[in-house]
Design a protein that fits this description.
The complex is a heterodimer of chains A (about 110) and B (about 110). Chain A has no helices and 12 strands. With about 110 residues, chain A is mainly beta. The chains are: A mainly beta (about 110), B mainly beta (about 110). The interface of A and B includes residues 97, 101 and 106 of A.
Chain lengths: ~110, ~110
C-alpha cells in the first residue's frame, strides 16, 4: 500500500537553529516526492520535488531534501530557520503527472525567538 | 507552474444548504483534483475531474454529496451539498503543472453552522 509517514506531529526549534523534518514513504513504483508548506489560513506551496537524478534537491526559501532509497526517506532540512518558517509541512508521494498524490499527516513547526 | 484562482476564499453556510466552489486555471490541464482538509488534518483526495467525463471519486466520497463539473480544460466546480457541521473544512483544488509538480489553489475555508 502506498503511504507517507511523518513521525513528528510538532517540532519546536529556536530561530537560527538547524531543522530536519522526517518523511518516510511506501510506494510500489519509483517514487516521486514532494514537500509542501502551508502557512496559517493559506493554501499549499511547493517547496521542492524529487523526480530523478541528484538525490539532494534544492528548493525555495533555503530548504533542501535528500532522497535515500535504502531508507525510503525524503527528509527536509534547513541550516538556519527564520520565524517566518513557522507553518505546517507536508510530505507527499506519487506520480509526476496527472494522478493523485498521497500526503503525510503533516508536521507543525514552531519557532522560538 | 500553473496559477489557480479559487473562490470563494471562505464562507459560512447554514446546514442543509449547498455551496459551489470554483477553480480557474491559467492554462489547459488534463486533470483537476479536489481535496478536503479537515481541521488540523492532512489533505484527503475527494475526486479527480477529467474534462468530458464523469469525475472519479475516492472511497468515502459520493457524487450526490460532492457533485463536480468540468466543462472545459481550465475550469472546474465542486459543490458541497446538503451541508452539515461535519463538512466544515478547507477545500482545495489542484492541478499538475507539466512535470513541475502539483499546484494548489488558495483554498476555500467552509464553516457550516
Amino acid at each position: 500500500a502506498q503511504s507517507v509517514t511523518q513521525p513528528d506531529i510538532h517540532i519546536t526549534v529556536s530561530e537560527g537553529a538547524s531543522l530536519e523534518l522526517r518523511c518516510n514513504y511506501s510506494y510500489g513504483a519509483t517514487p516521486y516526492l514532494f514537500w509542501y508548506v502551508q502557512s496559517p489560513g493559506q493554501g499549499l506551496q511547493l517547496l521542492l520535488k524529487y523526480f530523478s537524478g541528484d538525490t539532494l534537491v534544492q528548493g525555495i526559501k533555503g530548504f533542501e531534501a535528500e532522497f535515500k532509497r535504502s531508507q525510503s526517506s525524503f527528509n527536509l532540512r534547513k541550516p538556519s530557520v527564520h520565524w517566518s518558517d513557522a507553518a505546517e509541512y507536508f510530505c507527499a508521494v506519487g506520480p509526476p503527472r496527472d494522478d493523485k498524490i498521497i500526503f503525510g499527516k503533516g508536521t507543525r513547526l514552531h519557532i522560538l525567538p | 507552474s500553473a496559477v489557480i484562482s479559487q473562490k470563494p476564499s471562505r464562507d459560512i453556510c447554514q446546514r442543509g444548504t449547498s455551496l459551489t466552489i470554483q477553480c480557474q486555471v491559467d492554462s489547459q490541464v488534463t486533470m483537476m483534483f479536489w481535496y478536503r482538509q479537515q481541521p488540523g488534518q492532512s489533505l484527503t483526495l475527494i475526486a479527480t475531474a477529467n474534462q468530458g467525463s464523469e469525475a472519479t471519486y475516492e472511497s468515502g466520497f459520493v457524487i450526490d454529496k460532492f457533485p463536480i463539473s468540468r466543462p472545459n480544460l481550465t475550469f472546474s466546480t465542486l459543490t458541497v451539498s446538503n451541508m452539515s457541521p461535519e463538512d466544515s473544512s478547507i477545500y482545495l483544488c489542484s492541478v499538475e503543472g507539466r512535470g513541475e509538480g502539483y499546484t494548489f489553489g488558495s483554498g476555500t475555508r467552509l464553516t457550516v453552522v
